[in-house]
Design a protein that fits this description.
The strands form three sheets. Strands 3-2-1-4-5-6 form a six-stranded parallel β-sheet, with helices on both faces. A three-stranded antiparallel β-sheet has the order 9-10-11. The longest helix is centred in the last third of the chain and has 27 residues, at 281-307. 47% of the residues lie in helices and 18% in strands. Helix 1 (11-23) packs across helix 9 (228-244), helix 4 packs across helix 10 (281-307) and helix 7 (186-195) packs across helix 8. It has 308 residues and is α/β, with parallel strands linked by helices.
Length: 308
C-alpha cells in the first residue's frame, strides 16, 4: 500500500484528507501533527493514520508539506495598509520559522516532496538546502495555469473572439509571477494586447494580467483564509496525475548550485525528472528577471530568519 505523508494539518490538509481518504482507499495517508489526539477525532477513516511529529518512522512514498503560520493577520494588515492583494512572500519569514522548528523531526530523504506552503519556491529552496533531497517540487503552477486560461477565455469572449486553442505552458515563480508561454499562440497574444492596448510590450501585458488575476484570487479568500475547496480539489487532481503517471506542472530546481532558484516547468511523475518547457528569447529574459527578484527576497528572508 502506498503511503502519503502530510506534515502540517491545518484547514487545507484536514479538508483534503476528509475528501481523499474515501476516494483513494488503496492509499495510506499519515497525518503528522503536533496535536494527534485532536486530529484523530476529525479523521475517523481506516486508511488515515494520525501520528505525532516526534513518534513516526521513515516510510517510502510522496510527502505533502502544508506547514504554515496563521496567514490571516498578515493578509488583513497588508490589505488595510496598501489596498491591494498581498504578495505571497508576505508570509515567508513566519512560515520559514515554523518549518525550521519541525524540520528536525521530518523524514524527507529520498522521497518526492510536494510543497503547498507559501512562498512555495522559497520553501522548496530552503528544504533542498537543509535535506539535500533533489526531489522537491512546489505546487501552485497548475492553478496559475487554469487562472490564466480562464482570464484569456473571458477576455476573448468579451472581444468576440472564439478561441481555437488554450493549450499553452507556463513558467515563472508561483509566489512572485507566473506567465504563459505564448510563442505560436498568435490568437492569445492578440487578446492580451487588445486587453491592455496602452501597454507597449508583451512582458508588461503579462505583468498587468498577473496583477489583475492576483486581485481576483484575493477575493476568493474568506476572512483572510485561503479557498479551501479549490486547493483541496487541486490536491486530489495531483494524486490522480501521480496515479496515472501524467506530466505535472510544478516548480522545480533548475540550477546546479544548491541555492539555485525553483521555477515553473514540467515533472515526469513516473521518473520524477523535472524539465523546463520550451521558451523563446523574450520568455527567457522575463524568467531571468523574476529569478533575480527571487534571489533578492531569498537573501532578505534568510537574514531575518537567522536574526530572529
Amino acid at each position: 500500500m502506498t503511503t502519503y505523508d502530510l506534515y502540517g494539518i491545518g484547514q487545507v490538509a484536514m479538508r483534503f484528507l476528509q475528501k481523499a481518504a474515501p476516494q483513494f482507499k488503496h492509499i495510506k495517508f499519515r497525518a503528522i501533527t503536533r496535536f494527534p489526539d485532536k486530529v484523530k477525532l476529525l479523521l475517523p477513516h481506516d486508511n488515515i493514520e494520525v501520528v505525532h511529529y516526534v513518534n513516526h518512522e521513515h516510510r517510502e512514498g510522496p510527502v505533502f508539506i502544508s506547514i504554515a503560520d496563521n496567514e490571516k493577520k498578515y493578509i488583513d494588515r497588508f490589505i488595510s495598509e496598501h489596498k491591494q492583494a498581498p504578495p505571497r512572500s508576505l508570509v515567508a519569514h513566519s512560515n520559514l520559522k515554523q518549518l525550521n522548528q519541525l524540520l528536525p523531526y521530518m523524514h524527507l530523504k529520498n522521497r518526492p516532496v510536494f510543497v503547498i506552503t507559501n512562498p512555495v519556491e522559497m520553501i522548496c529552496k530552503h528544504l533542498r538546502l537543509e535535506t539535500k533531497n533533489p526531489h522537491i517540487y512546489g505546487l501552485g503552477l497548475s492553478a496559475d495555469k487554469d487562472r490564466i486560461r480562464a482570464f484569456l477565455e473571458e477576455q476573448g469572449q468579451q472581444q468576440g473572439i472564439s478561441l481555437q486553442s488554450t493549450d499553452f505552458q507556463i513558467s515563472g515563480l508561483h509566489y512572485i509571477q507566473t506567465f504563459p508561454l505564448l510563442s505560436g499562440h498568435d490568437q492569445l497574444v492578440a487578446i492580451l494586447k487588445q486587453t491592455y492596448p496602452t501597454v507597449e510590450s508583451l512582458e508588461q501585458c503579462y505583468h498587468q494580467m498577473h496583477k489583475d488575476i492576483e486581485w481576483k484570487i484575493q477575493k476568493e479568500f474568506k476572512n483572510g483564509h485561503p479557498p479551501v475547496e479549490r486547493i483541496t480539489e487541486s490536491l486530489i487532481h495531483l494524486i490522480n496525475q501521480l496515479e496515472r503517471e501524467e506530466p505535472i506542472c510544478v516548480s522545480g530546481g533548475i540550477e546546479t548550485e544548491e541555492d539555485g532558484s525553483f521555477v515553473g516547468g514540467i515533472l515526469n511523475s513516473k521518473t520524477y525528472q523535472f524539465r523546463l518547457p520550451h521558451m523563446d528569447i523574450d520568455d527567457k529574459i522575463l524568467l531571468k528577471k523574476i529569478i533575480e527578484k527571487d534571489k533578492q527576497l531569498w537573501m532578505q528572508n534568510q537574514l531575518r530568519v537567522k536574526t530572529s
